[in-house]
Amino acid sequence: MSSRQAPVRSPSPDGLRHLVHDWRDALLAVIAGLAAMAVTAALGLWAAGAGDLPGGAFPRVTAAVVVMAAGGDVELSGGAGALAESDAEVTAMPLSVSLAGALALGTAFLRPLRHRAVASARELLARVARTTVLWLAALAGLAGLARHTFTDLLPADSPADVIGDLLGDLLDASPTLGFRTDIGPTLLYGLLWVLGVLAMSLLVSRRAPLPARLVRFQEPVRPAAFAMLVLLLAYVVVGVVAGLVVAATRGHTSDTFAVLLLGLPNLVWLALGIGIGGSWEGRVEGPFGLPMPHLLDQVLRGPENATLDVRSLAEHDARAWWLVPVAAVLLLAAAFLMTARSPARTRLWQQAVHFGVAFALTMLVIAPLTRLHARFGLSLLGFFEVDALSGQVLLRPHLWAAVGLALLWGLVAGFLGGLLASRVRRRGEVTDEAAGAR
Question: What is the C-alpha separation between 43 and 46, in angstroms, rounded?
């Protein structure tokens, strides 16, 4: 009795070609996303004056900003000799860098799928998996580069510099500050970031293929998701225009461009939340301040937490009330766009619900991204705090109140946008002339 072994099948040339092609597409998408983030971060840091950092720190600081923009975790560590201790931490996300990377990564990811009508779930998951693996590998490499220690922290001829010199001369306690990435949280948050970007890319694109079972969900989801993307980008465009006007009329060009290239969405999406009635809580104390408009610093500076909303802003500058009509107009325009892209059979109340839920979910995502916490402290002998070298910046949203307000504004804007778009010919609508011809 003889046994036969099944022949081992080797991959066909066509299969290998497709596999190499798919990995190449994923690699190009990752390179596009990281390149956009690195260029944006480098330009922003250069505008902020980081190009003159000593010890060749500029590439490492750029890598740290990219890691933070991709959701990574950067840890700060400090030292001040044997008799003094320094303590520092920062929690922030440079959303200009994040947005540039997300747009580039999402566009490059969708490009190979632009001529497809339907794709299997297995194929889409495989594409997402390849892109995610390469993204996390690249992020791990950047995390290894993003580490440095600074020994000269204080500007010359400042009161803090005098104290720093005194510590260095008498106590051998010159303050230092270093940063490094925590690889575990960096890869975890980086995974969530890239999966979120790829999922949103599939949601907002009208032409991106979906599995056959999910095609029926694209009608209520994709128009609303696209409208939210347009709304957020519209706020960014308004912020760019305002920043250019400020740079041209009031000076401080470098500082303005640094804010535009590093944290513009942090500001304009904060303005969106405040414009609909949302509020943030924060505090600015010490020699450090917010890298943002002076108006925010005026509201938040003090020994106790202050509420940041349209009323507190208007107490210092009455033009803050313009945030409310700007939010109303842009929300109405986004609702009109959603209705125009939706099938004609969608009822008015459904348009309102779709837009309200979409806006509430959007606020649930962007409000936490505007959170900011930075702290640096120096103490002698463990308990004498040196005020000139200590400071804190805190900004956090009242999240669920903002989400509830977004739902209400979204329902109203969706209803009104549907009414305005009722005269516009929409997808799936049959006119009387076309019906008579049939």
Answer: 5
What are the phi and psi torsion angles at 128 (to 5°)? -65, -40
* Residue where the block lists tokens 């509020």: 279
Q: Are 310 and 389 in contact, with CB atoms under 8 Å apart? A: no
Digit-coded pLDDT (tens) for 84-127: 555 666 778 999 999 999 999 999 999 988 877 677 888 899 99
430: confidence class by pLDDT, cuts 50, 70, 90? very low
CA distances from 13 to 9, 16, 41, 142, 180 (A): 12, 5, 42, 35, 45
- Residues with Cβ within 8 Å of 90's Cβ and at least 6 positions away in sequence, in order, are 74, 76, 373, 374, 375
Cα–Cα distance measured from residue 413 to residue 353, given in angstroms and rounded to the nearest whole number? 10
Q: Is the pLDDT of residue 162 over 60?
A: no
Beta-bridged to residue 378, according to DSSP, are: 86
How far is the C-alpha of 198 from the C-alpha of 102, rounded, in Å? 8
Relative to beta strand 372-380, strand 391-397 is antiparallel
The C-alpha angle with vertex 306 and arms to 304 and 311, in degrees rounded to 5, equals: 155
Closest CA to 108 of 139, 140, 130, 136: 130
C-alpha 2: how far from chain center: 66
pLDDT computed for residue 425 by the predictor:
56
Nearest to 337 by CA among 363, 355, 361: 355
Using alpha carbons, list the distances in angstroms from residue 219 to 33, 206, 231, 359, 427.
29, 10, 19, 17, 11
Q: What is the pLDDT confidence band of residue 79, given thresholds at 50, 70 and 90?
A: low
